[in-house]
Amino acid sequence: MALGSKFLALFLIHICLLLSLSLAADPFVSYDFDVSYITASPLGVPQQVIAINGKFPGPTINVTTNNNVAINVKNKLDENLLMHWSGIQQRRSSWQDGVPGTNCPIPPKWNWTYQFQVKDQIGSFFYFPTLHMQRASGGFGSFVINNRAIIPIPFDTPYGDIVILIGDWYKRNHTALRKALDAGKDLGMPDGVLINGKGPYQYNTTLVPDGIDHETIEVQPGKTYRIRVHNVGTSTSLNFRIQNHNLLLAESEGSYTVQQNYTSLDIHVGQSYSFLVTTDQNASSDYYIVASARFVNESQWKRVTGVAVLHYTNSKGKAKGPLPEAPNDEFDKTFSMNQARSIRWNVSASGARPNPQGSFRYGSINVTDVYVLRNKPLVTINGKRRATLSGISFVNPTTPIRLADQFKVKGAYKLDFPETPLTGPPKMETSVINGTYRGFMEVILQNNDTKMHSYHLSGYAVFVVGMDYGEWTENSRGTYNKWDGIARSTVQVYPGAWTAILVSLDNVGVWNLRAENLDSWYLGQETYVRIVNPEATNKTELPIPDNALFCGALSKLQKPEDISFAVSITGNRSKFILHAADGCLCIHLRFWLIFPCDNLPLVIACSSLSSQSSLWL
């Protein structure tokens, strides 16, 4: 075996060197994710969390515009798994989106390799598991897409890049939370807020007990850092602030913003922002970093506050005193909304391409489809407590929608999601929006609940053109921002209010439109937008992956996973990947898997319909 491996490695090296001279493509970046349970005590009590490669939170995926990305996910949980790359548009390939409407799950003890290109994107995103409320137990991490060197960024290069993951947290794991929802109960108040997987600094001995590990972020004085903040929590909007430091907003979910200072900013579930923070304060002490609950009874939710420490290298003491105050707007419901309206698209900045972001004049495009999606408080359907959109509580299909289309499975879903809310009793259906390829869709998200909600559309950046309190009417279009509304993938909808978005339907596939609040999502507040090119060309959608998993009506197509063997030989400059499948060794060359580039891997990939196992050489 050792001699054969050496011979095989030498053979592949020659092949790769030959191909690298003749083929030039976008670089390929690879990651291995071992997803498993570990025991951690983020709030001082041992509990089961979901880790990646033994770490909670998981590692940062760091890539550059147009990179090809391969992430081999090994499911070491005791239940099915899918990983979703939130905000990554998966151009032409909803096969890789990692949600139940497009992918069969990865069974326990199996591995599956996601392969996709971060085409024409930059910015700050995150990944997480999408099934069974698993995100409430972890499994999340940041996903950074850097600009190519030839594309200027609209600010001086920061001294450092810092990721901060914030989110509400329960001492109960996702299984217990899921059982509570199944029993018709609310999740109740979270037990705290984590910052980078750690509990609060002991700023108050009454609210924060001894024995809790907190996050410390060390910085050099007199420098400017890019701080990427993601709300990866379960259901709570959080106000983010750093004591005595301005937050200069620069980017949100792949769009550069008009740069303006905030003392604090509300970050809703599923949202991401980049701030430029200058360490220009004196070093007499450390400074608090705070993420506190919003749109709740804050006097009762004081414990739902995350506190970390910003530590200057020349600091002379610990952070002390009261926390910097959150916005005092209990009786002013417009403060946060006006803050959200102030976030504008930087139309003169280049994004992933050299041309300015504003060269896409979304405000001058005629709308082809209009959908009003109304959210109401939870309802009872067939004896079960459910969440709805426009009177429909979504039921995930046993055969994913995209697979059902590919293999012409009848009855897997209905292409009948209503353009306006149902007037009759609510119902449970697998009802999907029929989008128009190359159409321009207007979606009004009407929140008639008493809770804050945020919504995400996979596959796209949507233009946030308006929001206001009350009921949306056609006259509301007169208030739309048709010039520099921010383009992003996750938008908030305030209680008793509406948010309007516009989206250009140019990405063929099946795309998830969902509540980011995990309880609402789990209880059915989602649908999918199906975009089909009638010409059915590979130029607008990539073919089904060779390693596609099968389930539901197509279960008979799935063969048992076969991991024949694995050998690891890593050189100082190159890494080679070979796949073993169905008991034989095969090499499958694809132009985008092979490239010449110093300090980046050369890759050969092989896969079969039944499985995909990896041999690293």
TrEMBL record:
Residue ranges of domain Plastocyanin-like in the record: 35-148, 161-314, 399-535
Gene Ontology molecular function, alphabetical: copper ion binding; oxidoreductase activity
The record, for InterPro entries, names: Cu-oxidase-like_N, Cu-oxidase_2nd, Cu-oxidase_C, Cu-oxidase_fam, Cupredoxin, CuRO_1_AAO-like
Q: Where in the cell is it found?
A: Cell membrane
Q: Which cofactor does it need?
A: Cu cation
User: What UniProt keywords apply to this chain's record, in alphabetical order?
Assistant: Cell membrane, Copper, Glycoprotein, GPI-anchor, Lipoprotein, Membrane, Metal-binding, Signal
Chief location of this protein?
membrane
Which terms in the GO cellular component ontology are assigned? plasma membrane; side of membrane
In what way does this protein cross or attach to the membrane? Lipid-anchor; GPI-anchor
According to its UniProt record, what is one Pfam family this protein matches?
Cu-oxidase_3
Q: Where is the signal peptide?
A: 1-24
PANTHER family in UniProt: MONOCOPPER OXIDASE-LIKE PROTEIN SKU5, MULTI-COPPER OXIDASE
Family assignment?
Belongs to the multicopper oxidase family.
Specify the protein name: MULTI-COPPER OXIDASE
Native species of this protein?
Salix koriyanagi
